[in-house]
Specification:
four-stranded antiparallel beta sheet, single chain, 4 strands, alpha+beta
Amino acid sequence: MIKLRIENLPLGTTQDTLREFLSLGENVEVAVPLDDVGETRGFAFVGVPAEDVATAVCARIQREPLQGRPLSVSRVQLTGGARGRY
């Protein structure tokens, strides 16, 4: 699985909002961390099954803002201690 970090999310972004925006199916992992008061922390992690899906996600992010906010994306480098988690 290829892990991506998406940054500059608008407040109120949910996993479903992000999944819909990126046109992702059910075979991907989407995690939107929340702060202590339940607000979006401004970033999310997306796990996609293949390189072509990762490329499509990156292209979508570069092409179109989410609720008027430009997003950025980077690959997550997993270390041995992460056990495959974000």
